[in-house]
Every structure is written in structure tokens, then in C-alpha cells.
Amino acid sequence: MRALLRLFSFTRELTPFYVVIIIASIVTAAATIVVPFLIGAATDAIVAIVDGTTTFDAG
What we know:
The protein is mostly helical. It has a domain at 14-51. The chain contains two helices and no strands. The chain has helices at residues 2-10, 15-51. It is rod-shaped.
């Protein structure tokens, strides 16, 4: 652990890049989790339209 802290002390000027990388990683992980829910909602909507239980208005 001490070696890791020593390494970060040498790269202090790169801190903004570390922050951007962490934020991008969190956003990517969140998007990976959300996509199946979006696909499921879209599938449910399409099935409801095909079954006739819901109408679709393109305008």
C-alpha cells in the first residue's frame, strides 16, 4: 500500500485525468446496467401495441 501511495505522490499533476477516468468508468457501468431495462420496456410496449391493448400515435 505504501508503494501505491508513493506512486500517486509522483503523479499528482495527473489527478484531473484520474477523476475523469473514474467518472467515465462509473457512467459506463451504469449504462451497462440500464440498457437491459430499456430494452425490456421497449419490448413490453411493442408487445402491447401488437396485442392491441395500447395504441401507438406516431405524431
